[in-house]
Amino acid sequence: MTAPGTEIAQLALSHGGMAWSQARRSAELAALPLDPCAVPLRRARGLALAEPLLAGLALPGFDTAAMDGYAVCGPGPWHVIGRALAGCSPSVPALGPGQAVEIATGAQVLPGTTAVLPYERAQRTGASVSGPDEPGRHIRRRGEECAEGREVLSAGTLVTPAALGLAASVGCDTLMVHRRPGVALLVTGDEVVRHGIPPVGRVRDALGPLLPGLVDWLGGIAQPPTYLPDGRAPLSSALARSRGSVDVIAVCGASSRGPADHLRPVLRELGAEVLVDGVACRPGHPQLLARLPGGGALVVGLPGNPYAALAAALTLLAPVLGRLSGRIPRPPEHGVLTAPVRRRPHETRLLPVTVVSGRATPVGHDRPGLLWGAAAADALAVLPPTDDAEAGRVELLALPR
Ligand SMILES: Nc1nc2c(c(=O)[nH]1)N[C@H]1C(S)=C(S)[C@@H](COP(=O)(O)OP(=O)(O)OC[C@H]3O[C@@H](n4cnc5c(N)ncnc54)[C@H](O)[C@@H]3O)O[C@H]1N2
Ligand code: MOO
Fold first, then answer.
1. Does residue 1 form part of some domain?
2. How far is CA 328 from the centre of its chain?
C-alpha cells in the first residue's frame, strides 16, 4: 500500500490546475482505508469487506433433494415407505433397494437414496411408484456448490443485499468491514437561503439537499450541513471544530479568488497541506484537496456553483471516500457519444449524458450554476482536452440514482 502523499509529490501541476485524471489519482492516494471493525449483518449493507469472506460451512450443508417428489433407491418400481420433509426427522432411517419415500425440496436425503424422482415424472398407484431410473438426478450433494473454508468474496467487495444473504448462508453473524468515513458539510455564503423562494440577490441552497445522498452513495456518512456566513473566522472555527470528529470536511463555496472566497487563506493559516490546488476541468476548476495538520481530516473544497460542485465532488470527493471506506475501485465505464461535442483545449470537460445501451447522449442544461442537466442524466461524460469537436468512446462517471 502506498503511503499517502508519496506519489502525489510526483504528480505535476499543469497550468490552470492539476490535470483531471492526476487529480483523481492524487485524491485516491491521499487516503488509506479506515480501520476494520466487526458489525452485525443488519448494519453492514453498503460497507466494504475488510477481509475476505470465507464459507463457514459447505453448501449445501448436507445431501438434499432439489425437487419435490420421491427419494428412491435403485431401479423402480418402488414401494413408498414414508416421508421426508425439510427440517423434520424422516419417518424411516434409510432406504433399501426398491424402496422410496416422499420427499420435499430441501429435505435431507436418506442413506441409500440413489435419485429424486419429481412428482411430474412419477406414476403413483397405491403404495407403489414408478418412473425413469436416473441415478444421481435431483440430489444436491454436500459441498458441491461451495466447499467449507472457500473464499466467496474478496476484501474490498461492497456488501450488497445479495452479499448479506450469502454471508448468512455461509454461517456469518458479523462481518469485518471498514467503517464509513464521517463527512462534515460546511455550506458557506451570505446569499444562501435554505427555504422557499429567495429574495432578489439571494440564492436557494442546492448543495445542502444534494450532498448527503451523494456522500452516502460514495460510501460516507454525512453530518447535517452547517451553514456559515462569509468570513474567515466562521470558516476557520468550523474547520477547527470539525477536524477531530470527522474524516473529511467538504466546504461548499469560498473556493475561488474573490473577496469572500476565504477557503485558501484559511487553510494556509491553519497550516494545511494542499494536495490539489485547482483542477484543469470545466466545470469545477477552483476545487481543492487539502489535509489539516497533524494527520487530520481531509478538506475537499467544492465550488459554490451547484453543477460545478457536483462535478468536483465526483472528481475529488468520490476517490477520497472510496479509498477511506476500503472499496475496490471499479474499472472505468465507457460509452460512445452519439454526436461530436466541442471540447476544451486545455481542460477536461464534464458533460451530463443519458446512457442507453452504451450510447451517451448529451442532455444540455449544463451551465456551472444549473443542476438541470445533471438531474436528467445517467452519468457525466469525461471529455479530455483537445482543440476539436469529437464523438467516439468516452469515460463515464455514473451519477447516483
Ligand atoms: N476571478 C475569478 N472568478 C471566478 C473564477 C475564477 O477562476 N476567477 N472561477 C469561477 C468559477 S468557475 C466558479 S465555479 C466560482 C466558484 O466560486 P466559489 O466556490 O468561490 O463560490 P461562490 O463565489 O460562493 O459562489 C459561486 C456561485 O454559486 C452560488 N452558490 C454558492 N453556494 C451555493 C449553494 N449552496 N447553493 C446554490 N448556489 C450557491 C453563488 O451564489 C454564486 O452564484 O467562481 C467563479 N469566479
Ligand atoms: O468551473 Mo466553475 O467550477 O465552472 O463553475
1. no
2. 9
